[in-house]
């Protein structure tokens, strides 16, 4: 159950293709065997207000990668690096004129601290 929550400045949000970006991240993680494709979830939260330092034009792209299955530290860091690389690529294509800060936080949450309920979940691949 890796979940990716991305918080983004409003102006930057309008310029990115979120479906394609999330798809690239999901495929990258699943193709490396770090998580099942149907287990990956990404949500994008557009910030109503944001400020980086004192620069009112600066943009932010802050992701939190939340995991519940135990993974070795090197795998968690590789997943985190993959997310950052995909975010970097997406911003680089835009060539924004202003400062953009991109970062990825890692939040490993034990299964005992996580509850889930689903309605009509997709069938597990056979």
Automatic annotation (TrEMBL):
Domain of life, per lineage: Bacteria
Name of the protein described by the UniProt record: 5-carboxymethyl-2-hydroxymuconate isomerase
């Amino acid at each position: 159950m890796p979940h990716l929550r991305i918080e983004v400045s409003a102006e930057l949000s309008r310029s990115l293709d979120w479906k394609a970006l999330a798809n690239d991240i999901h495929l990258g993680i699943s193709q490396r065997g770090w998580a099942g494709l149907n287990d990956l979830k990404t949500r994008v939260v557009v910030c109503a207000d944001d400020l980086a330092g004192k620069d009112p034009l600066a943009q932010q792209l802050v992701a939190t990668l939340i995991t519940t299955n135990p993974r070795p530290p090197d795998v968690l860091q590789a997943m985190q690096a993959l997310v950052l690389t995909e975010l970097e690529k997406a911003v680089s294509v835009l060539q924004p004129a202003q400062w953009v800060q991109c970062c990825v936080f890692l939040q490993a949450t034990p299964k005992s601290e996580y509850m889930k309920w689903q309605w009509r979940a997709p069938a597990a691949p056979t």
